[in-house]
Input
Amino acid sequence: MTPLEYFNFSSDGEGWDLHLPSEIHGAFGGVTGGALAAASIALSRTAEPTRLATGIDIHFLKGLATTQARATVTTLTSGRSLTIVRVEFSDASGIPTTEAHVALAASEALRIDIEASERKQGLLGPPPKDLSDRAKPWRKPEGVKVPIIDTARPQAARMGSAIATLVTVPWNPSADGSEGACLAADLSVGPPVDAALPKDRWVPHPNPDLSLRFVDRVTANDLIAIGTCREISRGFATVETEVWQDQSLVATGMSTSLLTAKS
Output
């Protein structure tokens, strides 16, 4: 099943209707940000089906708690080598919830014959070969429904000061497969922040944004996202993430977590 099929997209010529099943909802009562980022890239491909995703910058304006949503796709600029597409989501009642900018590149306009003389190992990875043997499944918090745990089956293991999250993507990769990297990266944001917070009390720390740059094609469903909390200051935490497919770096990015006071 492709990402477009998974989200059950349909168009009426003015916008897109899509289904965001409860299986991809997270702990804060709405669709996980990684699923919305994945849907944004899948929708951007309808504007430029032959171009490759090079990056996404997405902001979560408000939780999207409904399973039905509406999206509009606008091409902001399209040149010989690069296209920028804006994707905006609204929930079932029409309230805007999410805005993403997706960059897509034309491979025929680029020097794809040039590669690094030495394979880059990233700043956080690659993941050790025995990582899956040491990883432990995410625990389900008492009294809170987190359907994405059953869907993506995340597991976590420490890697020095970082935390690796093993994720199974619930759709098959298509095109360059960047949608899967979005889901894995988003699920890697919370664990390193949680590990850096005081242990005597729980502090909510939702992430309102995610920025990713795609390095290589994703061809598998099983990915490893390695996240580390770079700084906590002024009420927010900055998290750096790398997404790996086996021993190959496929995406790198940053996100913010807000340390919110309980109401």
Remarks:
- Residues 227 and 241 are 4 Å apart (CA to CA).
